[in-house]
Amino acid sequence: MAPRTQSWKDLPPECPDEKRLLATCLRRVKDCTDLTQQRLAAECGIATSTLNGYLNARNQPAPEVLRRFYLAVQEDTDLQGVQLPHSLHELESMLSGQTDKARTASQRPAVRILNRSHGAKFARRRRSRANNRARVPVPHQRGDRHTRTATGPGWTGLETLLDRLLRHETQDAFFMIWQSAMTLPASEIPHVVASCRAAGLSDAADSVITNAARRDLSAVLRIAACFHEAHQYEDATLLLSSATVGTRATQSS
Predict the structure, then answer these.
(1) Model pTM score
(2) How far is CA 174 from CA 16, 87, 114, in A?
(3) pLDDT (tens digit, 0 to 9) for every residue of the chain, 253 residues total?
(4) How far apart are CA 176 and CA 157, in angstroms?
(5) CB contact at 8 A, 33 and 73
């Protein structure tokens, strides 16, 4: 039986990336079972609204609640022969990583935007991009479930990037982002950025753009044109602004 997915609400644009990533992964696990949120909440010993809060990044589960949630889904999917996309250990590591104040900088995902000198202007643009993020089309309802459908070309490397971030292989993740930005054809860059944003990795998407802005002028202009064709206007603006800042820095050095 193939995994199925319901129509999820967009996560809050102000949600931190690590919290967003955990909620996204919880949703992916939930999509593998036909158990309702009410049934899963009962298995976890919590209210349905509380479970809904975990799935929408409003709050975080306690470790024991996370474990009960995962085992309830796993028990159902084992009977159906469906393999879960994440292990319990991965989810526990993500949760503990958010609450562990002693976590070192080398363990954090190295996908932050490289140039923060643009300040509040780009913060507003990022919020605007999040508010206008395209919704993924889904088929008509069948109960409270939706079948998983293809929505167009996406970045085939997204699963690998998510896996590396989950394993805290931050250097490998950063190199993968840099390599994609610097070597992929201009027409593929919008797909990479859109795929990262859809997975909740807005910092990774911004990092792809700022790295792509380091390419030669003709490549940057082609990428900007591809962003416009994909109606990703804010991404095109960020690309050109980053390229302009980089050019000025080079000329002044």
Answers:
(1) 0.45
(2) 18, 23, 11
(3) 444 556 888 888 888 877 888 899 999 999 999 999 999 999 888 899 999 999 998 888 999 999 999 999 999 999 888 899 989 998 888 887 654 433 443 344 444 434 444 445 545 555 555 444 433 333 334 444 333 333 344 578 888 888 888 888 888 888 889 989 999 999 999 999 999 888 888 888 888 999 999 999 999 999 999 999 999 999 999 999 888 876 665 565 5
(4) 9
(5) yes
Q: Token pair of 10, please? A: 């967009």
CA-based max dimension of the chain: 64
CA 133, 136, 140, 142 torsion: positive or negative?
negative
Answer for the pair 195, 159: CB distance below 8 angstroms, yes or no: no
For 40, other C-beta atoms within 10 Å of its C-beta total: 20
Which is nearest to 109 in space by CA: 176, 56, 159?
176
Dihedral angle of Cα 194, 195, 198, 203, to the nearest 10 degrees: -80
Q: Which residues contact 252 (CB under 8 A, 6 or more apart)?
A: none
Cβ burial of 69 (10 Å; 0-12, 13-18, 19+) is buried
**113 near 193, Cβ under 8 Å?**
no
